Amino acid sequence: MKYAVIIERDEGSFTAYAPDLPGCVATGATREEVLQRMAEAVGMYVARLRADGIPVPEPGAELDYVAV
Questions:
Q1: Of the four listed, 24, 30, 34, 60, which is most buried by Cβ atoms within 10 Å?
Q2: pTM above the 0.90 mark?
Q3: How far apart are CA 68 and CA 10, in angstroms?
Q4: Torsion of CA 27, 31, 33, 34, to 10 degrees
């Protein structure tokens, strides 16, 4: 499964979250680092849901850009 991940740039760091997985977040000093950490976070999140017998949400979030 592939989940959409939103990456936000903060002052000197990056934050990422997956809209389909509430509370699944990661931070990093670089874009690459936050993506690596987010991949790990999503893996742990899904594993925890499965271990607890909770259904894993299907990916549903989509991303697009709007020009202004």
A1: 34
A2: no
A3: 22
A4: 30
